[in-house]
Amino acid sequence: MNPEGRARVEAWLEYFNDLGISDFCLDRAASTVEASSEPAEPIPAAPQPLPRPVRMAPATVDPNQPHVASVLPVIKSASLFVANERIEGDTLERIREDIGENCRRCKLCEQRNKIVFGAGHAKAELVFVGEGPGHDEDIQGLPFVGRAGKLLTQMIEAMGLRRDVVYIANVVKCRPPQNRAPEPDEIETCSPFLYRQLAVIRPKAVVCLGAIAFQSLTGTKPSMSRIRGQWLEFRGIPLMATYHPAYLLRNPNAKGDVWEDLKKVMAHLGLKLPAKR
Ligand code: URA
Questions:
Q1: Does position 19 have pLDDT exceeding 70, yes or no?
Q2: Is the CB of 118 under 6 A from ligand 1?
Q3: End-to-end Cα spacing for the chain
Q4: Strands 119-120, 237-242: parallel, antiparallel or unpaired by DSSP?
């Protein structure tokens, strides 16, 4: 194996060891390799197109099912931006065109390099929503490609999925200077594009990475430790918040909490859960 591949596998194993799920993940890697008949690499290097993004859940989500813990009131629509309902015939391409090549709707345009629209499968059953692009994302024009992004990739792969079968987007599409949190006027200006993305994709679940994503979609501001892992709803789409991967880089002990949250998402999507050990 080449040094780059080895480093990637080692990072993978470290992450899965942290979560105590290395057996499960090695198991998955083996079955992925078998299915794609590629040389023995734990992660498929060139993802193959799939007929459907992820395995189907057997039935549509019923918030009264045991795995949907409705401890907070279900929010039918965001309280901040109620005007943005589904646009007839909308597509991701059209939303990208509407943003434009040189969007100047808010002050984030002043220092941004590239607009980071979002990436992934247009019919993904699972969408991850982050806060806003960082340095690497701003350079590449792609979401979650820096250190936090690598961790998010590991989280996705721990679920038995790949980045190209989920969709990844941010609340704001341009990098806030010095990686500060996006400000309310920036969120207000940009999040209608996220709403449109979600309305077009219509995933079976949205995972909010961190408080800003959660607040932007629900209009509520509870503490992450209280809200994480709970199912709510955004315009009919089941939504859950978990810690942001950047938080996990600073607080690796919280990886276990995130894994618990992701297992709930897996159950909801009908994905195979790791065997209890
Ligand atoms: N953090 C985010 O919230 N989004 C990105 O795209 C990268 C880092």
A1: no
A2: no
A3: 30
A4: unpaired
Domain ranges of the chain: 1-46, 50-269
To test the ligand 1 pocket, which listed residue (170, 179, 208) has its Cβ within 8 A of the most ligand atoms? 170
Distance (Å) from CA 144 to ligand 1 centroid: 5
CA-based torsion, 144, 146, 152, 153: positive or negative: positive
Give the global pTM: 0.77
225 neighbors 191 (Cβ within 8 angstroms): no
3-state secondary structure of 191: helix
187-218: pLDDT as tens digits: 999 999 999 999 999 999 999 999 999 999 99
**CB of 148 shorter than 6 A to ligand 1:** yes
Long-range contacts of 54-58 (CB under 8 A, 24+ apart): 54/124, 54/125, 54/126, 54/161, 54/165, 54/166, 54/269, 54/271, 55/269, 55/270, 55/271, 55/272, 56/125, 56/270, 57/125, 57/204, 57/268, 57/269, 57/270, 58/270
Which ligand 1 atom is the nearest neighbour of the CA of 170? Answer: 4
Task: Give tens-digit pLDDT for 102-123.
Answer: 999 999 999 999 999 999 999 9
Distance between CA 235 and CA 75 in Å, rounded? 8
The atom of ligand 1 lying closest to the CA of 130 is 3
- Between 77-91, 148-162, 185-199, 222-236, the lowest mean confidence (pLDDT) is in 77-91
Query: In this structure, which CATH number among 3.30.70.20, 2.60.40.10, 3.30.70.260, 3.40.470.10 belongs to the domain 50-269?
Result: 3.40.470.10
For residue 23, the CA-to-ligand 1 centroid distance in Å is: 29
